[in-house]
Specification:
It is a single chain. The chain is of the alpha+beta class and 155 residues long. It has a single domain, classed as 60s Ribosomal Protein L30, Chain: A. The chain has helices spanning 37-49, 55-58, 72-84, 107-118, 136-139; strands at 2-11, 16-18, 21-23, 28-29, 88-97, 125-130, 143-153. Helix 1 runs parallel beside helix 3 (72-84) and helix 3 crosses helix 4 (107-118).
């Protein structure tokens, strides 16, 4: 099992990417890559399950190669590392915490993008979304957070 968590600030002038999907919104997530908090959390969960550290070790935000890169690259890399260890990704379960925009209409498309990146059937990917009931930085619409758990069968 691996656990992942990520959070990014919402800022003007950037597109919003979550789960590999561009979502129409007035703000986007700030970060070195596309700042897709959901894919970062899932990538960290997979790397953790494999005992291979976290996303920052493999893709440091000080490296210009990763500037504005789509986070599906990171997720595909984690899947390649699993295959290299003859490990089988069993399932992913993730939660997004965002006051706005409404996430649920985009969940099927997110699951499809994650399925493709991991070569994992869609029915093994769980994505849920919730608000923070207007509490804290998420409730004030200053940022979006994501949590993920990955179950990986490692021989």
């Amino acid at each position: 099992m691996g656990i992942g968590y990520d959070v990014h600030e919402l800022v003007e002038g950037r597109p919003l990417f979550l789960g590999g999907v561009q979502i129409p919104h007035t703000k986007g997530l700030d970060g070195h890559s596309d700042a897709d908090a959901l894919l970062h959390a899932i990538t960290d969960a997979l790397l953790g399950a494999l005992g291979l550290g976290d996303i920052g070790i493999h893709f440091p935000n000080t490296d210009p190669r990763w500037k504005n890169v789509r986070s599906t690259v990171f997720l595909e890399y984690a899947a390649e590392l699993a295959r290299a260890q003859n490990a089988q990704i069993m399932n992913i379960d993730a939660s997004l915490l965002a006051e706005r925009p409404k996430i649920s209409p985009y969940i099927p498309e997110m699951k499809s993008a994650i399925s493709q990146a991991l070569s994992l059937p869609v029915n093994r990917i769980g994505i849920k979304a919730t608000t923070n009931e207007k509490l804290g930085f998420i409730g004030r619409e200053e940022g979006i957070a994501a949590m993920a758990v990955a179950c990986v069968l490692v021989p």
